[in-house]
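Record pair follows.
FIRST:
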Amino acid sequence: MEKRSILKKLLTALCSICFMLAGSLHFINTGVYESIMPDYLPFPLFLVYLSGVCEIAGGVGLLIPRCRRLASWGLIALLIAVFPANLNMAINSIDLGLPHYFLWWRLPFQLLFILWVFWCGRE
């Protein structure tokens, strides 16, 4: 097997694990995720659970070759959808034990995550 193929499989598996772990945290630390939801969004607890389920499903989908492309697009949509919560956390300095500068610094990384997920979904 060629080195590029092995690297792609490893990085896709890592991406999958990251999303499955992050999705699981929505059920373990529900209050944390609920606290960063913008006030204008209805049913914050439901949205926390829904995004957790979507992250887990997308992570699993990345591991299944037939589902990988669709999972990739779904995760990209999810990363875009959760951006307002990340922005809300930075704007309102919602303290989750992270330095304030980190809250702003992580926002551009959303684009890197989107690119990573897109790359994982390509053949």
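SECOND:
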Amino acid sequence: MEDETVKIDGKRIRQLREARGWSQEHLASICGLSARTVQRLEAEGNASLESRMAVAAALEVAAEDLLPIPPVSNPLTITAAPNPAGIRTENLMIGLALLVMALLYGGYNIGKDLAMRDNARCAASPTQCQR
């Protein structure tokens, strides 16, 4: 059987090893590998399937956790969520504009009515008005 090599995340191995306070030599002795092999794993990221399994077992992680994480193609791509109700944004904006106009018109009429009441009171009794 051929010795098949796989790409692994050498930085991840180093982080896990250092988190335990282990040297490369200590990890190598636990795995049954040479210290040079552990150095190559961390530096180059190439390992045989057996080496990957041995290191994963020694570090108590799944072998898949030592594989490199594939890069995200475009993390800034934003897609619009589907609108399940079928409500169009334009219709919402028109409705909002109409609501604002109705509130402004109502406020104008209330203000006008209050001003007319005050003017009528001042015309009837100028002593109550202090302008």
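COMMENT: The chain has two domains: 5-66, 89-126.
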